[in-house]
Design a protein that fits this description.
CATH class: Mainly Alpha
Distance between the termini: 40 Å
CATH topology: Ribonuclease iii, N-terminal Endonuclease Domain, Chain A
Radius of gyration: 14 Å
Number of strands: 0
Structural class: mainly alpha
Order of helices and strands: HHHHHH
Largest sheet: none
Number of domains: 1
CATH superfamily: Ribonuclease III domain
Length: 127
């Protein structure tokens, strides 16, 4: 399987589940113990607006490798037929790019890099 040829939507689909799992585990480890509170806290991480912000901040700080930037650009340019009503198309494309990158890294067996990205996001949100 050539991961670079996998549809961006498929990579984002996978990346979304991985990203959300990291967020849920992080919040549980922060002793958020009620489901309603978990859901409210998760929005700070899983909304398209938040994901786009995290991605842009990491791009601005040159956090990504050239290979990762190529995946991000390919994802950002992906033609999607829909986007959520709560954000504009550009924000949605950046959020999709973050999810697709995580999916790409997962299929490339680069779990440590996913941990670095998520650690950066959690650190940024806490600070």
């Amino acid at each position: 399987m050539n991961i670079s040829e996998i549809n961006i939507g498929v990579l984002a689909y996978l990346g979304d589940t991985i990203y959300e799992n990291y967020v849920r585990r992080f919040l549980i480890n922060q002793n958020v113990s009620k489901v309603n509170d978990l859901q409210k806290a998760a929005v700070k991480y899983v909304s398209a607006v938040s994901q786009a912000k995290f991605l842009n901040n990491m791009l601005d700080s040159n956090f990504f490798t050239e290979e990762e930037i190529n995946v991000i650009k390919r994802s950002r340019n992906y033609k999607s037929k829909s986007h959520p009503k709560n954000c504009d198309i550009i924000t949605y494309k950046y959020a999709t790019a973050l999810e697709a990158l995580i999916g790409y890294l997962s299929l490339s067996d680069r779990e440590e890099r996913i941990k670095e990205i998520m650690g950066n996001i959690f650190y940024e949100q806490v600070c």
